[in-house]
Design a protein that fits this description.
Blueprint (H helix, E strand, L loop, with lengths): L4 H11 L22 H11 L4 H15 L3 E3 L17 H9 L5 H14 L3 H22 L18 H22 L18 H18 L6 H10 L14 E3 L13 H8 L2 E3 L1 H9 L5 H4 L17 H15 L14 E4 L1 H13 L7 H15 L5 H8 L10 H13 L3 H11 L25 H6 L1 H11 L15
Antiparallel strand pairs: 1-3, 2-4
Helix pairs in contact: 1-7, 2-5, 3-10, 3-18, 5-6, 6-7, 6-8, 7-8, 8-9, 8-14, 14-15, 14-17, 15-17, 17-18
Length: 491
């Protein structure tokens, strides 16, 4: 891209149809015959968070969490072969977030944005636009190119190029922050308690937006377009307005009395179903660091010990030893994660600090990479209930002590740990950086020896949106799990 990020941003601020003329929004609209967007926004936040065990399984347990080797699979069902790198279309996440108009949170939130515009409420519009960016990133980082600009406007929308999607997401963040800062004191009503993420706290939404933008920009930092179009976002970010405390962590609290499993703690179910165990990769890294998070992340085995399982066990082996070997001898999910009210974390103080550590080390922002690194580790420990400062200090002076000569490797490794059990985000980290190094699974499907780089599109797209699907496949260079997306060295 020859045009800079800020040139594009300035042009869009003048012409973008989604944003009203700032001068016309000098006061709240007194009345409207439109439905209030709050309930729709609540629905979009809850479903879009991915808290439902059904979508959690498809995004993490049988996808990112085994690719990034947080977990190893011990289930033998037909849907549990991702740990062996079986190639297959991945309908569930696409349908959940985008395609099922009667359920998809992106579709609900699209209407929240439209309703906010009709009500001439720039505050609810801005917050909803930030949330739409979060959900778009979840989907594009799994599939690559996808409909964004014509999504929900056309029955058969075009698939947009991922590089354009990434620039769009950063522009949306800048616009939304500008809208909040311009109109927050003008008397507009926000979402209030309908906002189950931040209860209407606009400072927290700005911090979330900036941190999300940092995650997005760093993910694109190995692309040819980075310096001209994306780096300026990082260099001009207000670090004081990023997630800088545990109170600003983005999380959804499960509802143990809720009417469906869609609002309950997904890890409670996964733990009880005995389908995953700690991976050997996770065990080796935690052991090598003398990391006390081992005792939080996982429960000891039947002998009171900690043991990690090599990924990719053949299913016939799992079937033969499931009850008397794999279940008792390897470590299930720890108690911290299976309580009724265990938070479902989306973007944390720990991740924010480690993003800043990388950005500082690479010269994109000011500040000490080491200080951000130590802050991230401390935040992760405290997030998981390890609050004894002496334990934290000992860890920071032990094998995990910051070492300038291998700083990025350490930062990536600590972010991978802090992300647990967010396997989808951990997989994106490993794809981009190669750290931590994944161990070769015991068995992989023939011809599929390497970690997948994406998920193939659902078959419904090739059937019902064939021309646009094919244009995206041609542009990306294929539709296999090894077709690299734009930020991962592809087209």
């Amino acid at each position: 891209m020859k045009t800079t990020f800020y040139t594009i941003l300035a042009a869009l601020l003048l012409v973008v149809g989604c944003t009203k003329d700032f001068e016309e929004l000098d006061k709240p609209k007194a009345t409207s015959n439109q439905i209030e967007p709050g309930p729709l926004f609540t629905r979009s936040l809850v479903t879009g968070s991915g808290i439902s065990v059904g979508i959690w399984q498809w995004m993490h347990q049988i996808s990112g969490s085994v690719y990034a080797q947080h977990f190893a699979n011990i289930q033998t069902g037909a849907n549990f072969t991702a740990d062996n790198y079986e190639p297959r279309a991945w309908n569930a996440v696409w349908d959940w977030y985008y395609a099922r108009s009667n359920f998809a949170p992106m579709h609900y939130n699209y209407h929240v944005i439209k309703l906010s515009q009709e009500l001439e409420n720039p505050i609810t519009e801005a917050v909803a636009r930030i949330w739409q960016v979060y959900m778009i990133q979840q989907l594009t980082d799994m599939y690559g190119d996808m409909p964004v600009f014509d999504a929900f406007e056309s029955i058969r929308p075009a698939f947009d190029h991922q590089k354009d999607i990434y620039l769009h997401m950063l522009i949306e963040i800048w616009i939304a922050i500008e809208m909040i800062e311009t109109y927050r004191a003008a008397g507009y009503t926000g979402f209030g308690q309908a906002d189950v993420l931040y209860q209407g706290n606009l400072d927290h939404w700005i911090s979330f937006a900036n941190t999300l933008g940092m995650r997005i920009a760093l993910r694109a930092s190995n692309t040819a377009e980075f310096d001209a179009a994306i780096r300026p976002f990082l260099e001009n970010i207000n670090i004081a307005q990023t997630i800088s405390s545990e109170q600003q962590t983005a999380r959804v609290i499960p509802d143990p009395d809720g009417p469906t499993y869609h609002v309950k703690n997904p890890l409670f179910f996964v733990h009880g179903w005995n389908e995953v165990r700690m991976s050997k990769t996770m065990y080796d890294i935690l052991t090598g660091l003398n990391d006390p998070r081992m005792m939080v992340f996982f429960a000891p085995n039947v002998n009171g010990e900690y043991a990690g399982l090599e990924n990719g066990q053949p299913h016939e082996v799992l079937s033969e030893g499931y009850h008397d070997y794999f279940r008792p001898n390897y470590c299930n999910i720890g108690e911290f994660f299976i309580l009724d009210d265990t938070p479902h974390f989306l973007l944390t103080y720990a991740e924010s600090s480690l993003l800043k550590a990388e950005a500082a080390h690479r010269g994109f922002i000011s500040g000490s990479a080491e200080a951000f690194y130590n802050e991230g580790i401390t935040a992760s420990f405290r997030q998981f209930g390890i609050t004894d400062q002496e334990i934290i200090d000992d860890y920071l002076e032990g094998p995990a002590k910051f070492n300038e000569s291998r700083a990025l490797e350490q930062i990536y490794e600590q972010r991978w740990l802090a992300l647990y059990p967010n396997g989808h985000e951990a997989w994106s980290l490993v794809r981009r950086t190669g750290h931590p190094e994944m161990q070769q699974p015991v068995y992989t499907f023939p011809g599929n020896d390497e970690m997948p780089r994406r998920k193939p599109y659902p078959s419904s797209e090739s059937q019902h949106n064939a021309d646009n699907y094919q244009a995206a496949v041609d542009r990306m260079g294929g539709d296999s799990q090894y077709t690299r997306m734009w930020w991962d060295g592809g087209n």
